[in-house]
């Protein structure tokens, strides 16, 4: 007994020593953890502000580009067109004003999507106030205004730059009203942690609306109260100077800033504007999580060491007592329990794996079947030969399985059929079949036949490929819009200018007109790409279907007549309200009707109809059937599985982008509906939409006239 206790005691002492050493190392490394935490926060902030800096640099380039355009000689109307194109392309620009060297306004432009206060010109006096400052700065430098106030929008700023005085250029200042909010969206990533707080200081040293309210309040107070918040006052001073770095705030200051009772790490970095001014961003994060992690780790290690020590002591006592009892009986029971546990465990594993497994005896009869395969085999499978186990399988398939089992047993190695198209359960599918030979000591389980059904895997692969294709389309659309949109607008403006100078009778006028038409075609393609990649989630509300269908008919029947195609509308009585975003539903119907008109030749017919669900009544749930049918050329059989894929089109080059039906399918899926296609080459096509009825606010439309609304032709 004495010899047994000595190793246990020594082990307990060793565990206690290791635990004490680990605790010491944790305490000594706390400073390193804080340092690494600080480095990570600084890197995160730097990465987030890099995107903001790029956006501000792009705005500076756009403003400089506007100045360069205005520095070129030309009539005022030409400059107006060029600036209008720039205003349309850069969505953050809300208004543009141009002033001469004496500060007199030459022209002004307002974005059609701007707020009423901007559209009414209330902010143009504020823009004029910035002109003297911009005139004193070199061309290309950006002069920024202070925040315009809550009434005018907390994110609105005025940016201005001097116009270069090239040969014959007019000089002066161009100023833009900019909504800065979208530029600072990347900073949200640094506040994704619930314990992180953001302080964003504008070019004029004032906190922006994105700043934490408590941090912004103390930022305003610290210039006159540095005694209570010396480190935070130092942080504010460094941010105003445009410095970059980190600070460790004490527990008392962190508590006053609402960061809890622990030290806080502050990381700060400037966001420069062209011309010398800058914004500055800082994140403040409490180190309470590090302290809590340290305490939790110490506690867990201590408890683990204590439990291990107690377990070892108890185990030693148990061993000493058990040695004086019936060792043989205990060992036999232990082995029996172990075997029973392993048997139950093996049976449960086999029954719960999704792969089918059946066991064959030495004579080739089925001795056991797991649950996934048991549901697909006849009840008499146990004890039957392999041929009777798969009654729906053709004889050649059963023969291949038998040969596979015999080969595995004869060669004492696994034999497989991988990805084979086999008819095992009445219909063809793809399977992996494995014959696994076992030891010959148990004749009841001589061979295992493992059957893997690959049908669901193939379906998932198809869905994954479609998802990857849609993700690629989104990235491609964003890249095209960013890289091509602005220069394309400039090229079109120049082409219009040249066409205006040449006049309609000039020999080259037709060629320049072709250039403008092709630019418009590219612009439409870009808009379709953006519509596809930025499709918003459907915000469904009850929609009166009859009104929407009449609007679609009124919108398109003149276009159908122009193409010499008859358009008919069928509206039955008692249609329920639909759960839909009305704009997106109208977009779906317009796309389908225009495609139908494209498929018809002169004299063709397009029929737009709606059908209420069978047995529907007020308050019923169900689907309304919307159909668009034409008697046009139809869709070839080999193309029907691709019509909803992005960029697939059967139209001639230059007549379609292949995005219309992809957008239709995406909108229908977002609303919980279904789209079906029937087509016969030479006899026309029918697209059917199954659209959900509004569940919470359904009512029948009593004002709808029965019968068919006549179409054009």
UniProtKB/TrEMBL annotation:
EC primary class: transferase
Recorded superkingdom: Bacteria
Transmembrane feature ranges: 297-321
Coiled-coil annotated residue ranges, if any: none
Gene Ontology terms, MF aspect: ATP binding
PROSITE patterns: HIS_KIN
Catalytic reactions on record: ATP + protein L-histidine = ADP + protein N-phospho-L-histidine
UniProt entry keywords in alphabetical sequence: ATP-binding, Kinase, Membrane, Nucleotide-binding, Phosphoprotein, Transferase, Transmembrane, Transmembrane helix, Two-component regulatory system
Histidine kinase domain sequence ranges: 479-695
InterPro entries: HATPase_C_sf (IPR036890), HATPase_dom (IPR003594), His_kinase_dom (IPR005467), HisK_dim/P_dom (IPR003661), HisK_dim/P_sf (IPR036097), PAS_4 (IPR013656), Sig_transdc_His_kin-like_C (IPR004358)
Annotated EC: 2.7.13.3
Keyword Protease among record annotations: no
PANTHER family for this protein: PEROXIDE STRESS-ACTIVATED HISTIDINE KINASE MAK3, SENSOR HISTIDINE KINASE
Protein name per its UniProtKB record: histidine kinase
